[in-house]
Input
Amino acid sequence: MPQSDPSSSAAPGDRSAHDHARASDVHKLAATKLAAHSQRYTTNRRRLVDILIGSTGPLTIAGILSERDDLAQSSAYRNLVVLEEAGVVHRIITSDDHARFELSEDITGEHHHHLICDRCGLIYDITLPPGLERQLEASLAGEAQRFSFQGDHHRVDLVGICQSCRS
Amino acid sequence: MPQSDPSSSAAPGDRSAHDHARASDVHKLAATKLAAHSQRYTTNRRRLVDILIGSTGPLTIAGILSERDDLAQSSAYRNLVVLEEAGVVHRIITSDDHARFELSEDITGEHHHHLICDRCGLIYDITLPPGLERQLEASLAGEAQRFSFQGDHHRVDLVGICQSCRS
DNA sequence: ATTTATGCAAATCGTTTGCAAACCT
DNA sequence: AGGTTTGCAAACGATTTGCATAAAT
Output
């Protein structure tokens, strides 16, 4: 429903949660995770990771492809699946039709949440106080138990309208 | 990626968060909300709302259509858009390719969150302690302000594997 | 009488997949 | 060599839309 240029995905005043990890460390971890899944760290996969390292926030496929014109769309899709399964990247689904990708928290070592623009799909990274995270975890674990549900990870989003869509 | 019968969407031990509102009240509210958006409360729209009232949890389009065979798919899609815009229903997007729908919190008067099965897309409704909700709201509001983001509503999901997908 | 809603079938568009060539190990 | 990855183009499938008919005001 909302439409905009899906290749843009900007960042706000502060630095993003991503740029805390050094590129070489990220690649090392990525290689390890892929190896654990019997997958190779090919040139294209490394390229994808590099693009995500360089990004200030979650990127759409279009955004990723626009960074390098020597990247086949189908390979991007395929490799993002592999990277996701290996736990290297994380796929974010919003009401926007375009999936977005970011490095996984295992890789960046950060736990964060999102502000999601309902109009253009733009995503900002945010963090919550550790105490709040703990309480949340505890409550969710309790609810999961009631439903015999095996929780894996939680997600907190604030949905609204970003500054540029408002103006 | 995960696949299963999208027409099924069961409930667990307890009652769902939905069955607290009386059907007549729901219809009255729905009519009001639609009127406020210059939209009619047509037969098909009422049917959709009825199906959601009767459901124990969020339903996919397939699940909705399977409840009544005299409901055209395109009309379901179109009317769900109208109902969503009027704030009568709420659309839930997961990694599953099938959008799911539930009555909006304005209508049910309940604020709840979700356990989402990563394999089959099944969704359970859960609630968090009011105190925790308040802290969460406050933290999110603070973050929104930092990004000049106009928050509308928050969302908390626990993603994992449901009992039947585990067995 | 006009506007709005319906239902069918066709179109759309992000994503997935078949297949032959290129790449690793 | 033997299996994997790549890139092109074709296929897929949930959702959307054009259009003629039916309903509502």
Residues 39-40, 42-45, 72-75, 78-79, 97 of chain B lie near DNA strand C (CB under 10 Å from a C1'). The first helix of chain B runs from residue 23 to 36. The interface with chain A takes residues 1, 12-14, 81, 91, 93-95, 115, 117-118, 124, 126-129, 132, 135-136, 139-140, 143-144, 146-163, 166 of chain B (CB under 8 Å). Chain B has seven helices and six strands.
